[in-house]
């Protein structure tokens, strides 16, 4: 990193507003966290009229999506442990994801599994403010904080404030690293001892902070300026995970057509591995799930849609759009890919994507049908590829339900 890069960090925007119109409670809660009072113009392919008749086929698809969600929630209800957790007591994040799926499809009175699940989450609160048992404190706290913020219960207020403070404390700050030029400055890893932040944990933390900030606003609670991330540093870290040499001076960053604009897991680390480029250069491969996580992170950081970093990742995502695999990763992390795609494209405001051949892609319809076809007869989902816990049907079912909820709100 050079002096020009530090200057770019100082100029990173934090005041660009976004307006979205998702109708599901979960979608509305997430998008409301990004509303700051003005409207950002969208590219033509994302625009839509304020009043729009819903085609008949959308009604049919909505019914199919609703049925899939209800089947999935019924399966979750039957799969909950009597102690209130789902899948494992060691990682409250899995339970929090299940609760988030329920929050997207609320019922009155509140179902018993939801009450038990929240009671379990509260039992995982630690003296330092984190929400975890032993391992992965950042991951578990971020995902749990999302579920708590979505609950909108006043009794969780103190826990939410402490969890926010805990997550913010995990950010690698310039004055802590000893090197303000380090590509890791601004990121968040798995815990305080983690000196190598990653984009996955960082994007989850940004979502948790956005939703909890919205919770604070709804309850007329003030947050001092010191109780927030160093946002310019966070953007610095995000762009240091992107294959875009104009903003990322790391030697592995490449603007070759295969990788330009896409994202990797962490500076110097792509789970898709390296790729050889002439003459003798080695770049890190961009891949699908992290590229959507990168887009989502930029949205939470309030970058404008026409920012070169945003347009570059959108170009990569359009060029590599597929539902048959997690691009460059095959079936590894496939449902996390679907889940992050639905969130990122919804919050970005992309109603369609334009393929290389110029055809318009209705990604919501395609993703909804894909998830419906992958749902098992009992209502659950699971990945045959077990990397990143995706053989766990609770985790994968939660991913699928959250994705379908984001889709349902815009059909």
Descriptive report:
The chain has 15 helices and four strands. The N and C termini lie far apart (44 Å). By secondary structure, it is mainly alpha-helical. It has a two-stranded antiparallel ribbon. The protein has one domain (3-48, 63-408): Alpha/alpha barrel (Glycosyltransferase). 47% of the residues lie in helices and 3% in strands. Helix 3 runs antiparallel to helix 15 and helix 7 packs antiparallel against helix 9.
Which structural class should the secondary elements be placed in? mainly alpha
CATH class: Mainly Alpha
**Outline, from the CA principal axes?**
globular
Helix/strand order, N-terminal first: HHHHHHHHHHEEHHHEEHH
- Give the percentage of residues in beta strands: under 5%
Rg measurement, Å: 20 Å
Indicate how many domains the architecture comprises. 1
Strand order of the largest sheet: 1-2
Count every helix, treating DSSP H or I runs of 4 or more residues as helices: 15
N-C termini distance: 44 Å
Major sheet summary line: 2 strands, antiparallel
Helix content: 40-55%
Rounded average pLDDT: 86
Unreliably modeled segments: 1-22, 36-56
Tell me which CATH architecture applies here.
Alpha/alpha barrel
Q: Find the count of extended strands (DSSP E, 2+ residues).
A: 4
What CATH calls the topology is: Glycosyltransferase
């Amino acid at each position: 990193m050079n002096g020009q890069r530090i200057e770019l960090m100082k100029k990173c925007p934090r005041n660009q507003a976004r307006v979205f119109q998702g109708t599901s409670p979960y979608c509305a809660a997430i998008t409301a966290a990004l509303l700051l009072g003005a409207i950002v113009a969208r590219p033509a392919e994302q625009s839509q009229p304020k009043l729009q008749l819903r085609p008949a086929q959308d009604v049919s698809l909505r019914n199919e999506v609703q049925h899939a969600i209800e089947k999935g929630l019924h399966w979750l209800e039957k799969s909950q442990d009597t102690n209130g957790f789902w899948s494992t007591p060691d990682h409250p994040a899995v339970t929090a994801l299940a609760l988030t799926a329920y929050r997207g499809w609320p019922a009155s009175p509140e179902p018993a599994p939801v009450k038990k699940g929240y009671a379990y989450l509260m039992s995982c609160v630690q003296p330092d403010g984190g929400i975890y048992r032993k391992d992965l404190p950042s991951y578990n706290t971020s995902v749990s904080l999302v579920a708590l913020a979505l609950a909108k219960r006043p009794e969780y207020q103190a826990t939410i404030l402490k969890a926010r403070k805990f997550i913010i404390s995990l950010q690698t700050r310039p004055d802590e690293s000893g090197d303000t030029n380090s590509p890791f400055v601004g990121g968040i890893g798995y815990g305080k001892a983690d000196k190598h932040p990653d984009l996955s944990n960082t994007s989850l933390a940004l979502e948790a902070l956005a939703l909890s900030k919205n919770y604070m606003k709804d309850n007329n609670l003030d947050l001092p300026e010191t109780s927030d991330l160093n946002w310019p540093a966070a953007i610095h870290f995000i762009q240091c995970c992107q294959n875009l040499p104009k903003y990322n001076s790391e030697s592995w960053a490449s603007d070759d057509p295969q990788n330009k604009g896409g994202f990797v897991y962490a500076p110097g680390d792509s789970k898709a591995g390296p790729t050889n480029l002439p003459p003798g250069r080695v770049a890190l491969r961009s891949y699908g799930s992290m590229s959507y996580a990168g887009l989502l992170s930029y949205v939470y950081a309030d970058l404008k849609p026409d920012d070169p970093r945003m347009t570059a990742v959108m170009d990569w995502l359009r060029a590599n759009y597929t539902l048959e695999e997690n691009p460059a990763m095959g079936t590894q992390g496939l449902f996390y890919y679907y889940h992050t795609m639905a969130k990122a494209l919804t919050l970005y405001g992309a109603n369609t994507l334009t393929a290389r051949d110029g055809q318009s892609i209705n990604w919501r319809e395609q993703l909804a049908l894909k998830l419906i076809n992958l749902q098992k007869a009992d209502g659950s989902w699971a990945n045959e590829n077990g990397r990143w816990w995706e053989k766990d049907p609770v985790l994968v079912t939660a991913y699928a339900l959250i994705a379908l909820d984001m889709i349902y709100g815009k059909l």
